[in-house]
Automatic annotation (TrEMBL):
Limits of the DUF4218 domain: 23-135
Superkingdom of origin: Eukaryota
PANTHER family named in the record: DUF4218 DOMAIN-CONTAINING PROTEIN-RELATED, LEUCINE-RICH REPEAT DOMAIN, L DOMAIN-CONTAINING PROTEIN
Protein name as annotated: DUF4218 domain-containing protein
Amino acid sequence: MRGYLDKEIGTALFEFGNFYQQLCSRTVKLSDLDKFQENIVLVLCKLEKIFPPAFFDVMVHLAIHLPREVRLGGSMQYRWMYPIERLLGVLKRFVTNKAHPEGSIMEAYISKECTTFCSMYLDGIETVFNRVERNDDGGERTLGLAAFNQNVRPFGRIQIAPNVPVNQRDMAHWFVLYNSPEIDPYREYVIHMTLLEGDNTIDIAKRQRKEFPQWFKGHVRHRTLN
């Protein structure tokens, strides 16, 4: 987005997204909620300079009250209702007979389950199991870890970023390890061993991000030598 938007617009959108990212994390410190409350007001003021008044409905205004909700009810990650609301929207579209909405939902849901199951055994037609991905740009799928096994096409000339800071390199390294299903058994093993040491959940998450890459590197090297 930095290359396609003005600096002011991009900064406001990044700050708005960062607010939700921090607010929806697994652990939120009470001392940070006051900062979130102050920052979201400034972010919305920046957005008011960019978007028309019709953009600011009750859902945008809701962001101001979210830090208070976290303070009263705890982490939002375990109370997030957006997936439930999306499912209710899907079920609402199943209603064709308003006199019997429950029956319409049940009949449509069973029909969808049956057609989805049958489509697993159909060849030569497009189904949810073989259709092209939504963000397919015509690239070729490569073999390897799931984090890199995507249909992608290079944008512009490929260059090696010079002088990458150590913290950014570690973040990229952890992103690959955390989002690779092939490595999940090793991460679960390390979590189990850490639990046996008596650490709490917050310490486990921090220790895993800090110590797991080096442990995994040594584990792979040891198995290679053997």
